[in-house]
Write a structure and sequence with these properties.
alpha/beta; MetI-like fold; Rossmann fold; six-stranded mixed β-sheet; five-stranded antiparallel β-sheet; 11 strands; binds adenosine-5'-triphosphate; ATP binding
């Protein structure tokens, strides 16, 4: 079956699932109102199916069909409650795990893994036995047994989403972990959590019914489908299966509906396609600005355990200067920038003889609010820079609202001004749009605008044009250069493309295998001007850009 056919089948399944579950819900709502009294009327015992009693009667003389329909409400309520316990507490636990420090997180994940490996129904039986038989304890027991599954999924999703650039951006902006979790992470987990919730509804239904069937769930005179199955057992053994049919068919229909909905939702889940990459190129000349060192890096070493990834590099950035770090993939450019932004991934450690930004000592943890004032980041992929679940306006104004305590209206006006400054068209409309409604170039302009909002001393641009269409690249580079001139803000540009850094930068640091091999003025970036064979090879592999970036700036 082709992928397209599979998708169509899943969508048809979703529609059937929704219809089935809707029917069960209608029965659950209406049947107790319409048939409660009739379902309690006693007729002949063990009557066979007939026009009067379509599925016959039970040992006490109750109409089996009416009791099955009436039992829908209690069964669905218990199932929904137990599912809600599993979802809410599981998501809470999984998010909490992500908020812990790495060691606590690791330990908690191992505990969750062990609980997932423990059979859920066995755990539920233990909990139900401890709490005593009853509908309430069945809900708690089955709900508790479901918690580890949601906790593990949430923790795994949180680990993945926390690597997204919009989360790093929020962290750099000083947004607290709880707010990051609630605003930026949970909305992006909704889809997989919904899929798991739908299939959990089905397993919870059978588990709740199983508990009532073995006598640990609903107690007489109340009844759910599991209890009706229990009562039908003697009839089944006596060769009268009809009594079983009502609850059994309804359990299957409700469970099938939930499973089909889960499958349909899973098929609709549409993982974001990786952005296509293109290469930029450029040419021109620039004057090297002078001034005090804004950034000082001395003997910076970044390690993963005992593996050294950045091996004692040193360089400086002056106030107002545009410095490029160039080198092939894996040479340590991004890690160097992340060390400067204090955003190194877990498991990596940095030490340096000196690592400073203006008066901030970056070798020790700096309060996020101060970091947010000092550094801004522009990432490679403008598609993943923004949270897809939030409107542009909400996220663009976040930095001002969190740090400057700026009111919503004033923050909006400032950001609209900033969007105008980076020449984004129709800024008011953009604020109302979601990230996917903007082109890559627009999103990158918006990112640059928001990174200017705190008037940072240093802007780190990590491959700012790599993911953009080739026609947009030169525009964005020109925009960065213009802002550098106008705002006097220093920029550290990370790129594997020597053409980009030559076009944009005053000075270039060339990295190779975690070391600085050469530092050279951008004006000297010619095959004859550089000293190292590695830099020459990079230059020889670089095409020229048609449009100059360092054109005069007229503002
Ligand atoms: N979290 C991590 N744990 C372990 N190793 C890592 C981690 N992040 C990066 N590395 C390794 O560190 C080295 C430098 O990575 P870095 O991302 O700084 O390279 P880069 O020069 O920016 O490359 P690219 O242009 O591909 O992003 C690479 O070998 C990479 O595999």
């Amino acid at each position: 079956m082709s992928r397209c056919e599979r998708n169509r089948t899943a969508q048809a399944g979703l529609a059937i699932g929704l219809i089935l579950l809707a029917l069960v819900l209608v029965v659950a709502v209406a049947a107790p109102v319409l048939f409660s009294a009739q379902a309690d009327v006693l007729g002949p015992r063990f009557a066979s199916p007939s026009g009067e009693h379509l599925l016959g009667t039970d040992a006490a003389g109750h109409d089996v069909l009416l009791r099955s329909l009436v039992a829908a409400r209690l069964t669905v309520l218990m199932t929904a409650a137990a599912t809600a316990v599993a979802v809410v507490l599981g998501v809470f636990a999984g998010t909490g795990v992500w908020l812990l420090r790495p060691r606590g997180r690791e330990l908690s994940l191992r505990v969750i893994d062990a609980m997932v490996a423990f059979p859920g129904l066995l755990l539920a039986l233990v909990v139900a036995a401890v709490l005593g038989a009853g509908a309430g304890s069945a809900v708690v027991a089955i709900g508790v047994a479901g918690i580890p599954y949601f906790a593990r999924l949430t923790a795994n999703l949180a680990a993945r989403i926390s690597q997204q650039e919009y989360v790093s951006t929020a962290r750099l902006l000083g947004v607290g972990p709880l707010r990051v979790a609630v605003r930026h992470m949970l909305p992006n987990m909704a889809e997989p959590l919904l899929v798991l919730a739908a299939s959990t509804f089905a397993t919870t239904l059978t588990a709740i019914s199983a508990l009532s069937f073995v006598g640990l769930g609903v107690q007489a005179p109340a009844y759910d489908w599991g209890k009706l199955l229990n009562e039908a057992l003697p009839s089944l053994l006596a060769g009268r299966p009809a009594q079983l049919a009502g609850p059994a068919v309804l359990i299957v229909l409700a469970g099938l509906g939930a499973v089909l909905i889960g499958d349909g939702l899973a098929a609709r889940a549409n993982p974001r396609a990786a952005a296509s990459r293109a290469r930029a190129s450029a040419s021109a000349a620039a004057a090297a600005p002078a001034g005090d060192f804004l950034v000082e890096v001395r003997d910076l070493r970044i390690s993963a355990g005992d593996r050294e990834l950045v091996k004692g590099i040193s360089f400086d950035v002056r106030d107002g200067e545009v410095v490029g770090i160039v080198g092939e993939s894996g040479s340590g450019k991004t890690l160097t920038a992340m060390a400067l932004a204090q955003l190194l991934p877990d498991g990596l450690s940095a030490k340096a003889a000196r690592l400073s930004l203006a008066d901030l000592d970056l070798a020790v943890p700096v309060a996020p609010a101060r970091m947010a004032e000092a550094v801004s980041l522009v990432y490679q992929d403008p598609g993943s820079t923004f949270n897809p679940a939030l409107r542009m306006g909400t996220q663009l104004t976040e930095v001002l609202r969190v740090h400057r305590r700026t009111g919503a209206r004033a923050a909006r006006e400032r950001i609209i001004d900033a969007l105008r400054a980076v020449r984004l068209t129709e800024p008011e409309r953009r604020m109302r749009q979601h990230p996917h409604e903007l082109s890559g170039g627009m999103r990158q302009r918006a990112m640059i605008a928001t990174s200017l909002a705190t008037q940072p001393r240093l802007l780190i641009a990590d491959e700012p044009t790599t993911a953009l269409d080739v026609t947009v690249q030169a525009e964005i580079l020109r925009e960065l250069r213009r802002l550098n001139r106008r705002e006097g803000m220093a920029i550290l540009v990370i790129s594997h493309d020597i053409g980009v850094v030559r076009a944009l930068c005053d000075r270039v640091v060339v990295m190779y295998h975690g070391e600085v091999v050469e530092e050279v003025a951008a004006a000297d970036l010619t095959v004859d001007g550089v000293g190292q064979p590695y830099t020459k090879a990079l230059l020889e592999a670089t095409p020229e850009l048609d449009h100059p970036v360092k054109e005069p700036v007229h503002d």
